[in-house]
């Protein structure tokens, strides 16, 4: 049914005179639970359905979306998309072209043992309560636990005029916790998250209780932390923080739309050496069980493992059909939209730094005085200037090759290109984290992953 | 639409709800997006759905459940009711919940719906946007002009078991312009925005001209040294700052959860004796105006700060019942950018008006600036969302900021930092300019003039 609707919309667009069209029709059941200790701040479940159609006419884009899936309304949406494209075409100076793909027809199913739609919201609320309890029972110093449970399951049809006729089952589930600890006047907090394209069975497969406890344990550990010095030091970033660096500082600069818009420092740098030889970075939508994984992107292009940086050399960008055509390259499945009501734009999926061969002990042993930084509490990146600043969630001073005093409020900042050169050793471990990435008002699930990395002469800020 | 909502309420009652409430929001949006000095895309979106709340009476109180659908059929409504009932059966009762909004007299609002907006065609907006690009292309140092011009019409409807029943239409006209200028290694960004219920092309030209001028004026900024100075905070900067601090802190739920520095500060002096703040849902043409709130409670004008004294908090029906007061009509459904029907009601402002406590305390911006020996003026702030709302502490970067010396703007400021807490800021506001501007937030506005804050530490 969804496939039929998307196909009708696309066919109508072509009949109206569109040179290219793609449509997505969706029906998704979603749950959102927010629990503070024992109080449910939100417990929302609902059904989101709708269709979005995008049209290219005389080199200009138009888009329309509707939450009604009545045939009459789908027709109106296709006409509206055409009208908007036609209006844009009168003003467009530089005509847009898209790279056409080979036809592909597919039905993507997900292996789910416990479908999310068959688990009542009451069961999900019960689980949330359990997780919150686990965190709060860890220590008397844990004064509160903020828990978010989110899931989404249903179907999405993707049809494009050049190639795609795809129906995808989707099922994804996510839990995030923020544990807050208190001792005297001091209050600390730490987050942990679990997310996967899976059904409710995820919670049998992953020891999620351990994850909740870890958040609590880390928050309690931070109670002993002291204010940090600032200056230039050798830094070891843990897999989570290094993953955030790969995503925020490097990945965003590899998005081809940013490159074309002149908003990336990596414009015109393909095949240039940007970093030390030990650094290789991928953005890979095909990671099995990856939080940002999809078989097809939202233009119906088969996704890929995209090589961004190989041994320090910039090898590729993330593309959609438009950016690929513009730069004379091939689409690689990087077009994603938050939902049917948004246009697909160039996005990352699972971004990671590949492992090296150092153990954490080996990374540490040469350091007389340095910082060990763990996870990120947020920060800011300017892809056009190539600057970044991340606030580590946890930090330790490194003294004579050993982890010493825990530190508070440490941030890591620098120039992305300088930093890529300053990475002088990479761990052999590998750990992934899940999150949501926002761009142009659209949020999509993404995964980050990395081993531990060591950065020489990094700028560390604290409050002294 | 009321028919479907009334059906949903009756059906929920039949299926076991002690009380029920059905809320509808539907919107038609037309927008053009411009990138790199050209129109990138125009879009037309229709989004509508209903959210249903049920209250189930148990031995020691009511439990509340919620569900939504964006399919406007009776069958879909039944699905949402089932979900809502499931949540209510699971949740522990809340002893503070008394009932959903009771029926009361209506309030009226002028000029929140501009019929002209329904007639705007994609071509009209594209032509306007194209002209805006020309308007902003005032200098060859300008390399990027981007932004969004958007018009919407929407309607809100609500019905509940207590006889509340109503609907109204709204419209909005919003835009944001970003302009980048480059010269000899210096890159500067200028911006401006506008929001109103009524369509007005002249305002669009002003916004894009301002953004262009701002970007040029920001070229070749200079670093400043860290010191205490007088800071002129323009309406947009004040709106960004207040949205993440004061507005959160005067919400009754923040007070009840003790996440505000204003707990037990009612009728005490919390700001400069010159400062008054109201939440005014009846400002003509303001995008925060509405006849009733998202629970169907008639809206009003609520005095929050009067000449420096804290007078009231913002209430929805639940927090009002808990404090045994009347709701101020500030129930708002807002849920991280998702459509309003997806969200359970929380608390938010309508039009948050900041003004001088007495009329003669207003001066022209030039006059206010002439009082400054050493200071700065900033149009916006970056990073306000990182403020700690519970304590009022913030640390933000002035955006489109200039140094002011001996009453005059002298040069653009390179990356600086302003830190402090909103309580001190409110006490140190000493002058008000007469440039009151309406700044649009998600479903509300801040209406404020430029204010002069004394003794602010600005770090270079």
Structure characterization notes:
The complex is a heterodimer of chains A (464) and B (460). Chain A has 464 residues and is of the alpha+beta class. Chain A is built from 10 helices and 23 strands. The longest helix of chain A has 21 residues, at 71-91. Chain B is α+β, with helices and mostly antiparallel strands. Chain B folds into 2 domains: 2-217, PmbA/TldD superfamily (PmbA/TldD fold); 227-459, no CATH class. Chain B has helices at residues 2-14, 74-90, 115-118, 122-136, 201-217, 235-244, 246-249, 252-256, 317-323, 365-370, 422-428, and strands at 19-35, 38-58, 61-69, 142-160, 165-183, 186-196, 227-233, 275-280, 301-306, 309-310, 331-332, 346-347, 351-356, 362-363, 374-382, 393-405, 408-412, 417-421, 429-433, 437-440, 445-448, 451-459. In chain B, the strands form 4 sheets. A 6-stranded antiparallel β-sheet of chain B has the order 3-2-1-4-5-6. Chain B has a 6-stranded mixed β-sheet with strand order 10-9-8-13-21-20, covered by helices on one side. Chain B has a 5-stranded mixed β-barrel with strand order 7-15-16-18-22. Chain B is globular, with a radius of gyration of 24 Å. In chain B, 53% of the residues are buried. At the A-B interface, β2, β3, α2 and α3 of A face β1, β2, β3, α2 and α4 of B. β2 (39-57) of chain A pairs parallel with β3 of chain B.
